[in-house]
Amino acid sequence: MEQRRQLQNHKGEAMTTSEMGKEDITLDWRGRPSNPTKHGGMRAAAFVLGLQSFEIMGIAAVGNNLITYVINEMHFSLSKSANIVTNFIGTVFLLALVGGYLSDSYLGSFWTMLIFGFVELSGFILLSVQAHVPQLKPPPCNNMAAADNGEEFQPRNPKQSKKLSTYFNAAYFAFSMGELIALTLLVWVQTHSGMDVGFGVSAAAMAMGLISLVSGTLYYRNKPPQGSIFTPIAQVFVAAILKRKQVCPSNPQLLHGSQNNVPNDTTTFSSDAGSFLHAEKFRFLDKACIKMQDGTNTKESPWRLCTVAQVKQVKILLSVIPIFASTIVFNTILAQLQTFSVQQGSMMDTKLTKSFHIPPASLQSIPYIMLIVVVPLYDTFFVPFARKFTGHDSGISPLKRIGFGLFLATFSMIAAAIMEEKRRDAAVNSNKILSIFWITPQFLIFGLSEMFTAVGLIEFFYKQSLKGMQAFLTAVTYCSYSFGFYLSSLLVSLVNKITSSSGSSGGGGWLGDNNLNKDRLDLFYWLLAGLSFLNFLNYLFWSNWYSHKPSSSASSAPGNETPMEDYNHYRLDDNNIP
Question: Where is this region: Disordered (predicted)?
Answer without folding.
Answer: 551-578
